[in-house]
Design a protein that fits this description.
This protein has about 120 residues and is mainly α. The chain has 4 helices and 2 strands; from the N terminus they run αααββα. Helices cover about 55% and strands about 5% of the residues. The chain has helices spanning about 5-20, 40-55, 55-70, 95-115; strands spanning about 85, 90-95. A hairpin with a 4-residue loop joins strand 1 (about 85) and strand 2. The radius of gyration is 15 Å and the shape is globular. The chain has a two-stranded antiparallel sheet with strand order 1-2. It starts with a helix and ends with a helix.
């Protein structure tokens, strides 16, 4: 919405956290303390789309290949075949929000990369 400086602040925070820890946490406190729990696919999809908006295509692709596509159910016999699955300590699930965010991100990535040619 035209708030590029503010977007860079948020983006920079999450990018540094990801590059340092290998994941983004599902909870951050004001003192930047993070929980040890990994965020869901929807969060990674939003971070990848922010990367695209800020023209950091390499980081967007890193997130997509490391955190989104690796969570897609590839077993054709599974009732979740094709879905993007969150793995929590107790359960593995697929929900509409995370799947929609992942699909939107993949579509926007293809579009953005085609425009850079």
């Amino acid at each position: 919405i035209g708030k590029k400086n503010e977007a860079f602040l948020v983006y920079d925070f999450y990018k540094k956290a990801y590059l340092k820890e290998g994941f983004i946490s599902d909870i951050y406190r004001l003192n930047e303390e993070a929980s040890p729990s990994d965020a869901g696919i929807g969060s990674y999809a939003l971070l990848a789309r922010l990367s695209l908006k800020l023209k950091d295509y390499n980081f967007a692709l890193k997130i997509i290949f490391e955190k989104i596509l690796t969570c897609q159910e590839k077993n054709s016999k599974s009732e979740y075949y094709g879905a993007f699955m969150n793995e929590w300590p107790i359960i593995k699930d697929a929900n509409a929000y995370d799947n929609l965010q992942a699909l939107l991100t993949l579509r926007e990535t293809i579009k953005a990369l085609n425009e850079t040619k």
